[in-house]
Amino acid sequence: MPTARRAAHYNEMETHYYLYLGLALVSLFVVVARRPRRRHGLRLPPGPWQLPVIGSLHHIAGKLPHRAMRDLARRHGPVMMLRIGEVPTVVLSSREAAREVMKTHDVVFASRPMSPTINAITNGGRDIIMAPYGEHWRQLRKIAVVELLSARRVLSFRAIREEEVAALLRTIAIAAADSRPVEQGQQGAAGFNPPDLWPSSTLARWLSSAERRGKESRETVFRILDDIIKEHLQRLDRAAGAGEAEVLLDVLLKIQRDGALQIPLDMDVIKGVIFEIFAAGSETAATVLDWAMAELMRNPKAMQRATAEVRSVFSAHSTVPEHGLGELQYLHHVIRETLRLHPPVPLLLPREAREPCRVLGYDVVPGTTVIVNAWALGRDERYWPGDPDDFRPERFEASDVDFKGADFEFLPFGAGRRMCPGVMFGLANVELPLASLLFHFDWEAPGVADPAKFDMTEAFGVTVHRKPGLLLRPILRVPVPGV
Ligand code: HEM
């Protein structure tokens, strides 16, 4: 999901570190720090030493935050206190700590922190992803779960997915005929923005364009959506498109017209929800697909097994039908293993303590940002003994551990009240393309003689994706219909 919201949250930290450091020193005189108060008797979580103004930033700067936080947690423990600029932040890195926050005390941590940039982008959290816990969020979440992202709705888009994958396969088949490699690229901008690090500093806000850019990007998307909405409202008036799969926008417009909601759904909220779902749904699935292909290239035995399975299960077919995907056991293990090693949103989305609470014996004061390091959990030797960093889909053959939010060592979609409601939607967008790429083609990595050397460098962005583009040569094995 990450998501466009995350884009506003973290921003190419390495490049901006020195800028922030300079800013921090200047702001030393103007910042009113919002530290957790050390009230008598409180047992705050341990953490690394802090500097005035920048807090713990120097421990993270220049590194990928999920990796830096895992390394720090190894020294300071599974409930660790950082200060990101002036924002008190607790980082959780064990199954037990995650369970406390996402299950035992889920309701206490069911809100998200509202930074100035997030506030600008989401118009004060009026969409789903960053909405504060309360009636507005509850209503939108219910619409998302029941109407927009339900199994029935995901199924209704099957034909569209099959069409899109068929178009992708035709493009690749043409490249294969010319012996051309194909590339999947990813780009993302994300970051720690000064106003989010020092929300109380007027200077930080004044010097940064993050809030203005956030607001502008929202307005640009909303302007584009205005025309689309006009068209859809006219279609609804004419009752046109009957019998077609109902698009998500039409569902929301109909709910609005029904007027049966406790809090009326205004047009800005509809636009925000569409914007979020588009952002949350597209890049996350593309990132998983990219990592899965990269891991399979790096692990030829797993690639052979996954390819053999899909070709044998669909040997009587000319292409992969989505309704048969349930038969591909190994492919599902491949996707699980990819999500374990490469959760696209490695720190999930932040939560905020709404009330005083104790987590594994430590006090967490209201207003503290709480982060679950899902990436660290997925690579923790205690839960994945022996070879936590190896890609071994077979490990799921003898394991019931799943990503549905009940196993706190494996949380690519989060857990509890704020867990991702788009799991089925997201998986549907990974399974069919991956199975189809393996069914029709063998794959070679030009210029990579040793598969173990396949470049797996991570880049931080809207989601954590592979830094290099995925440059692969397809070799046609099963003809693609229509080429
Ligand atoms: C592989 C794909 C995806 C991954 C890994 C993913 C991951 C996540 C994560 C980690 C969260 C935060 C969970 C938490 O705080 O506990 C989240 C929230 C969310 N996701 Fe996803 N997501 C994916 C696909 C999707 C799709 C396809 C949609 C919609 C079409 C979607 C919509 C949302 C929404 C609306 C939220 C906010 C829920 C709330 O705050 O109540 N996601 N997602």
Characterize this entry briefly.
This protein is α+β, with helices and mostly antiparallel strands and 483 residues long.
What does this structure look like?
The chain has 483 residues and is α+β, with helices and mostly antiparallel strands. It has helices at 4-9, 13-27, 57-60, 65-76, 95-104, 116-122, 135-148, 151-156, 158-177, 194-197, 202-207, 210-238, 248-258, 267-298, 300-313, 329-341, 374-378, 423-440, and strands at residues 79-84, 87-92, 182-184, 351-352, 357-359, 362-364, 369-372, 441-444, 458-459, 465-466, 470-476. Strands 1-2-7-4 form a 4-stranded mixed beta sheet, covered by helices on one side. It has a 3-stranded antiparallel beta sheet with strand order 3-11-8. The chain has a two-stranded antiparallel sheet with strand order 5-6. Helix 12 (210-238) packs across helix 14, helix 14 packs across helix 16 (329-341) and helix 15 (300-313) crosses helix 18 (423-440). It is globular and about 70 Å long. The two termini are 34 Å apart. Protoporphyrin IX containing FE is lined by residues 1, 128-129, 141, 144, 149, 276-277, 280-281, 284-285, 288, 344-345, 348-349, 412-415, 418-422, 425-426.
Structural topology:
Blueprint: H1 4-9, H2 13-27, H3 57-60, H4 65-76, E1 79-84, E2 87-92, H5 95-104, H6 116-122, H7 135-148, H8 151-156, H9 158-177, E3 182-184, H10 194-197, H11 202-207, H12 210-238, H13 248-258, H14 267-298, H15 300-313, H16 329-341, E4 351-352, E5 357-359, E6 362-364, E7 369-372, H17 374-378, H18 423-440, E8 441-444, E9 458-459, E10 465-466, E11 470-476
Parallel strand pairs: 2-7
Antiparallel strand pairs: 1-2, 3-11, 4-7, 5-6, 8-11, 9-10
Bound molecules: protoporphyrin IX containing FE.
